Amino acid sequence: MNELYIIVPFSIGLLILFGILLGKYIVWTVQLSQIDKLRILHGFFTRRTLRAISEVFWESLLHRNIWKTNPLLGYMHTSFALGWLLLIIVGHIEAYVQAQSFSVPPWIPIFFRYFEHEHFYGARFFAHTMDFLLLYVLSGVLLAYGKRINSRLFGIKRTTKLKPKDRIALIALWGIFPLRLFAESATAALHGNGGFLTSGTIFRLFESSEYMEFTLWTLYSCSLAIFFITLPFTRYMHIPTEVYYIFLKAYGIKLKKEYNSFSKLQVYSCSRCGICIDACQMHHAQISNNQSVYILKNIRDENLTDRKLYNCLLCGRCEDACPVNLNLNDLRISQRIKSSKEYNSSYDFLEKSITPKADVVYFAGCMTHLTPGIKQSILKVLNTAGVNYLFLDKDKGACCGRPLMQAGQIEAAKKLIAYNRQQILDSGAHTLLVSCPICYKVFLDDYELGQLDIRHHSEYFLELVQNKAITLKKTTNSIVYHDPCELGRGCKVYEQPRELLAYMGVVKSVRQEKVESLCCSGSLGDLSLSMQERNKIKDQTLQVLLKPNPDILATSCPLCKKTFVKGVDTQVKDIAEIVVENLI
Predict the structure, then answer these.
(1) 323 and 371 in one domain?
(2) Global confidence as pTM
(3) For the chain, what is the domain count?
(4) pLDDT digit string, tens, across residues 377-416
(5) Number of H helices, E strands in the chain
(6) 254-264 in b/e burial notation, b at 16+ Cβ within 10 A?
(7) What helix, strand, coil percent values describe the chain, rounded to 5?
């Protein structure tokens, strides 16, 4: 009868967990678009499934991305995930070997020491192996205790606050493995079936009894049950959901502009580890409640406010830092689409005229027009190289649509995109040249321009140099290059600007560059920041960029140039302006 009492809490908790997870996953899958469902069916019996399994191993079990953040933090997560899985797998093998059959009740491997006292062939090997795995997990538990005391040792300066239900789940999780240690030790004191860790020596000193043994195993079972039951309603929901998310990604399912079931899956895949908090530069403006981890939590709890939603630079630093690879910017924009009222302009004022033919279409964009030095430099380079180009938005041009999209005005953005797209295609050009990273990203992501080659001017000018269409002189100027958020993290253009600058000077590195580059603070993604708040963020970025004391601070974004040029003695120039100065 005691045996039944022990397995009941564990069994009830596991059934509740499986029932809730199955229900959620069925609903989320049913709510996917028909195309996404077909992607799952077509991808299931392909190598995509094998790639997904591999990704689950590396990310959900070994936590590769967290290791990159901090090895100690990576070890802690790996010991929990991989160690627990190995305990389950080896425990089942042990039960099968002992019974010499695969028909073993499912709870036996979980409570093996309590139910099986016989010394079967290989028992000592399994006892020591299971103790080693238990010690491995317990080392992670100890580190978890330490992280709560001093998170900076784990590379985390700021951590998220736990809600009451999260605390209950956490205490249950932390209790599972110490209780297993004590329970197995109590059994070993009575029956001598423990390993090097669960030998039962301590319990023999206290005259371990069957009542003590029963109590400890029951507490172990209850701890498992509490964790299972609370898991779907706490931050730990990410454990099973992340696995499903990885598989759907492998089948080619992507986040849509509008919030949908795949968006929900990403929201629930957030572990609230807090790594994105340290990556956010808003702290320098004393803003600490709107980072991505809090936004996803607010979405789950359905209490997201517009103040938090719109107060974000959309720089992508949090997205790059996220160990689960969530599309944090797009998730925020999808919420902005839900929140914003539709802007009903038809844009009938835009002139529809015959588009001249050209080999290259140059689209300057709003911010380049507001920074005429960049525009004039680009035109001079094109003329020097003898490029047959069309300056598409020279007069009365339309915005690319990206700022509207960032604000959640998706339908208005689509109208501008349709207008510009038709003009670009009508030109018959083979290349689209842009000088604004904001434009560059929306052209790549949303314009559907077919085989048209889309190039940022830093990439295009490098090709002109390599093809000897233009020649540049080398100087002794030291240059620090700032990676604009949309061009770098947004479009993965890091090396080409540096290669181009290397033709004209000595490029110096800084501590935070490329994927870790800091935002200039001039982002159009956040229009609620005061100038004082923007300046605090900008000053922090400039402090990093100007540390090597360069002759020139170079960038390739008109918005970054306009932001940096105020209040610094160092020359701030766009890469196009530097090219023009060094033309031979």
Answers:
(1) no
(2) 0.89
(3) 4
(4) 999 999 999 999 999 999 878 999 999 999 999 999 999 9
(5) 27, 8
(6) ebebebbbbbb
(7) 60, 5, 35
